[in-house]
Amino acid sequence: MLGLAGADASAPPDAHRLQEASVSVPSRPDAPLPRPRGRSRRRRAVVAALAAASLAGLMSGPAHASGGGGDGHGPADPELRRRLQALVDTPGGPPGAIAVLTAGGRNEVYRAGTSQLGTGRPPRTGDHMRIASTAKAFSGSVALQLAERGALGLDDTLGRRLPRLPAAWHRVTLRQLLNHTSGLPDYTEAPAFIAELTADPRRRFDSRRLLDYVAGDPLRFEPGSAYHYSNSDNIAVALMAEAVTGQRYEELLAELVYRPLGLRDTSLPQGYRLPEPYLHGYAVDPSEAPEDVSTVLGASGVWASGGIVSTPRDLGAFIRGYAGGLGLGPGLRRQQLSFVQGSSEPAGPGRNRAGLAVFSYTTRCGTVYGHTGNFPGYTQFAAGTKDGKRSLTVSLASQVNSSTNPRLLAGLRELQEDFVCRLLDRRKPGTAH
User: Fold this and answer.
1) Where are the beta strands (DSSP E) in 334-425?
2) I want to staple 81 with a disulfide (CB 3.0 to 4.6 A). Which of 6, 75, 346, 424 is the partner?
């Protein structure tokens, strides 16, 4: 049985913990963390930055989380291992990092640094972590599975499924929510939401009322006419799924995603705790010692936009399933992979384009499909091949984006692209050059 680090009594018995976000000023989901004086003030600063952020920065047959067995094989490319270590050793770099390539049931695991400062324990594929906006791909998976069953339609509107929402939003469709062309205002930029989260970082929000914070705001633009990454979109997607099924979103995740893909260490919590073992996430400032911010924030305020907790092993299994179509028929699959101009937050490797809760990353070696995310203490990239047979996850134990550390992000994207090239090489991960 998995031991929880101070488990929430109100969480379901199988819950493993927490969330995502990018840090920024209201219009910039990736703004830098302020530099407070002292540890307690730094903690509040992390929370304040998150509150001001727009939490930017989710069929070939079922994939299974246990593929490859154990913690995987050692790295077959010593240069990639060296470069991951160099990323960790960079001033302002993350204390720990792990990359997992999977193909043909075999894992190739690259790791650097530690899962917790002071222990010397390396990151492992079974370590829990906040997957941040990568959770948006999970809400996309739920919505598309319901569309495949005829319970939802991509052209269903908020007015039809959620008539209690503001009338000005009623013409927004599920499709526009999934590819961030809805124009919905982002609730994480609302002054009232920011004030409440800053006052109590572990506050228990009513996750199903988060859109109330922007209920009086107009749409940013005519639905379908532009791209704007908004955390409100995936909250609305989850609410539509609940409305047509009468089931809680957490139950739909378990039924439509976790169980079919064999995800045993993935959950959507409400609290701030993480299950053991977990990859500790840190606020990093080159002038100060890193501070553990793994459990500073509660997850209820981000919910379907970024609240999922998973492991590198489970995340790889999920993205193989989602990138591979996860049982979708050809018509819906074509729509899932219809792309508009738009990047994930933070941007992933190569050229980014937005599909239905999935991004395409076109690199010099080919295209993969997935999602990125970042949250205080964590940065994620998960991608798979179109046939669902190969996957790559890259997880860092600090938040890296274009505002917190643009130079490090540029280096990270180059490294991610080289990992993609390794993944798409004719040689399978786990074999030597």
Assistant:
1) 340-341, 351-354, 359-363, 366-375, 378-384, 390-396
2) 75
User: Which tokens go with 374?
Assistant: 């970042």
Please name the residues in contact with 85: beta carbons below 8 A apart, sequence gap of 6 or more: 112, 113
Distance CA 314, CA 110 (A): 16
Cα(379)–Cα(402) distance, integer angstroms: 12
Task: Say if residues 272 and 298 touch (Cβ distance below 8 Å).
Answer: yes
Strands 351-354 and 359-363: antiparallel
Write the CA distances from 113 to 117, 164, 211, 252, 406, integer angstroms. 9, 49, 39, 36, 21
Q: Is the pTM of this model over 0.90?
A: no
Q: Give the contacts of 213 (CB within 8 A, at least 6 positions apart).
A: 187, 190, 192, 193
The set of residues, in sequence order, having a beta carbon less than 8 Å from that of 199 and lying 6+ positions away, is none
For tokens 């799924």, name the residue: 241
Cβ–Cβ under 8 Å, residues 218 and 185: yes
Chain centroid, CA 343 distance in Å: 14
177-236 per-position pLDDT tens digit: 999 999 999 999 999 999 999 999 999 999 999 999 999 999 999 999 999 999 999 999
Q: Do 210 and 220 contact (CB within 8 A), yes or no?
A: no
Kind and range of the H or E run holding 97: strand 96-103
CA nearest neighbour of 62 among 318, 255, 369: 318
For the chain, how are helix, strand and coil distributed in percent, rounded to 5?
35, 15, 50
Strand partners of residue 379: 374, 396
